[in-house]
Design a protein that fits this description.
Largest sheet: 4 strands, antiparallel
Structural class: alpha+beta
Radius of gyration: 19 Å
Strand order of the largest sheet: 1-2-3-4
Number of domains: 1
Helix content: 55-70%
Shape: globular
Length: 180
């Protein structure tokens, strides 16, 4: 009887249980940015291994420095957008059962990444980037841990939307209860 109550409570656990992952992404992101600022010269690539440099740069724009060459209004645009998107993601996570890990995982990564970069925008007016991947003459724009969380989160969310959602819908009834 006791195990039935425990499993019933576990079934009702919400996605909030995944927020420690978001906090881990935020902490790693802020710590690595602090280390980069303290130890890397601005704009000078430091070789780590073939095809990977540490290169400290400030991104005043969005992804891939989108709108970075404008006079500052984009800071407020990205602050508002990132805040609104984070609130939507938090609510989505809150409404998702914790056991639906294939959805909770990407949402937690996205929330952590968004807040990591949001902290930079509020505090500094730009985002600190320092990881540079390149191949011969081609270089990917510099990025950070928060960007990695956002990228992996988006990829996993797309995979869930294409494949996982069908499986989850088939495994649950119309009321969200397990059918197996």
């Amino acid at each position: 009887m006791k195990s039935d109550v425990g499993s019933e409570q576990a079934g009702r656990a919400r996605g909030w249980w995944w927020l420690p992952l978001s906090l881990l992404i935020i902490a790693l992101d802020q710590w690595t940015k602090l280390v980069a600022v303290e130890h890397l010269p601005y704009g000078v690539p430091q070789a780590v291994m073939p095809s990977l440099n540490w290169t400290l740069v400030h991104n005043h724009g969005g992804a891939f420095s989108f709108l970075s060459d404008h006079d500052g209004w984009q800071r407020w645009l990205f602050l508002v957008l990132a805040s609104a998107i984070t609130l939507v993601l938090l609510e989505w996570l809150r409404r998702t059962p914790a056991r639906v890990w294939a959805l909770c995982l990407p949402l937690a990564l996205l929330i952590g990444g968004a807040i990591g970069n949001l902290i930079d925008r509020v505090r500094l007016g730009y985002v600190i980037d320092f990881v540079q991947v390149y191949w011969r003459e081609w270089a990917w724009p510099a990025f950070n841990i928060a960007d990695s969380g956002i990228t992996v989160g988006i990829i996993l969310l797309l995979v869930y939307e294409v494949y996982g959602q069908r499986r989850h819908t088939a495994d649950t009834g119309a009321d969200g209860s397990h059918t197996r």
